[in-house]
Structures are given as C-alpha cells and as structure tokens.
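Input sequence (257 aa), recorded before submission:
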Amino acid sequence: MDRVSVVIPTYNSAKTICRAVDSALLQKVPMEILVIDDASNDETERVMRKYKTEARVRYLKNEKNLGVSASRNRGVAAAYGEYVAFLDADDYWADGKLEKQLKLMKKTGDVLCCTGRELMGDNGALSGKIIPVSDRITYRQLLLGNVINCSSVLAKRSVLLEFPMEHDECHEDYLNWLRILKKYGSACGVPEPLLKYYVSSNGKSGNKLHSAGMTYQVYRRLGLGRLASLGYFCCYAWNGFLKYRKASHYRENKAAD
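Predicted structure, token format:
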C-alpha cells in the first residue's frame, strides 16, 4: 500500500497539536506524521513528548522561525511517502479521510485531491456550517475562487517537490494549487466534510480587507496582468460571499430537519 506522509506545521499550538496528530493517527493507511515546529516558544515541544514512543510520529523543530511555507517545504523534503497530506495544527480530520482520498486518486489519476470541510469556532465546537467541494476542480474554476483548503489536501510528493510553497505574504497555498493545476489540468474532490476547519479572526484570512489584498497578489504572482487580476479578484470575492452564505443556509436547513 502507498504510504502517506502527513505534514503538520505548528507555531505556538500546544493547545491543539495533539488533536491534530491524534486525528491523523486514526487514519487507516500506512503513514508517517512529521510535525514541523517553527521555533515555538510555548509548550509545544513538551506536549509532543507524548509521542516519543510512537514510531509513526517525527518531531522536527526549526532553529528559527521560517514561516509556514518553508516549514511545509521542510516536511515535504523530509517525507518518505509517495503522497503528502497537509494538516494545520488547529484543524483535524474525520475518520477515513485519507483512505477515501487515496481510493479516489487511484481511480482518477489526479495528482491532487481535496475534501469538503465543516467550520469550527474558537472553543473547538463544530458549527454545522459545511463547505463542500466539487468532484472535479479545473484550473479555470480555481481562478474564480479558492475551493481547495490546505488542511484537506492530499497530493503526490513529487508534484509538491516540483512546486514548493512560497510567498507567505499572500495566500501561499492558493498560489500553489493554481500553479499545480495550471500544469496538470485538474484535481479531484471528496464532497464530504472530512476536514474540521478552525476559523480564526486573528489569522491571515481573518481581516477581510487584508485577505482581499493577498488574493489580488496571488493573481499577480501567477503572472496575470493588472486588469485580468482585477477581473478574477471580483469573481473570487463574489464566489467567496456565496460560499459562506450557502454554508450558513446549510446549517439552518439541518437545524430545521
């Protein structure tokens, strides 16, 4: 069976890192887990000692803070698996996530697969807001809005080595998915909310105006002109509004049921 290397970048996430690691350990596929500590100054290193006898968990600590892109890239470079799955330290997975993605990628031949997600608040409680994904995501579709959440991604390691993440000043993951799909054409998706995704008001995407500026920079980094970048950004903003509005409606409909 194909081994999956789970790359978990972390910075001062002592309170949530075990939840993320444990959810990965529950996946029923051959795996290793690489926790890349980006020079945390909290209790992360002490907390990770819990796994010192767990052969599937490797803990690597950066000597200095390098940023999330460099930390993910370090994990990909150190990985042994044919596939790499990304998981942020404040998110976690539902049982069966990797198994379903591997099966789908084998069927379609795609180099990248993502899943739907359920939003989670500051207290760790699930909100019931579901954001699904299509079973097929093309480069052109992705230009209109980022439907690929990083913590849901499973990809061929060879492709991630070919396209390492960069530019933390913008949405580095969105930029990377666009570059990958520009070459490889499309990705596949599992619509189920197999990712439990933490929404933070303090994160890069928390400030909507700042996030909008970073999205525009993604298009410019991709090599698009100013006018084209502005046009795609307008589509991105509208689709983002619809995405979260539909998620809210899904929660209301589930409550009514």
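Checked by second reader. The beta strands are 4-10, 31-37, 57-61, 83-86, 92-93, 112-120, 126-131, 136-138, 154-156, 186-198.
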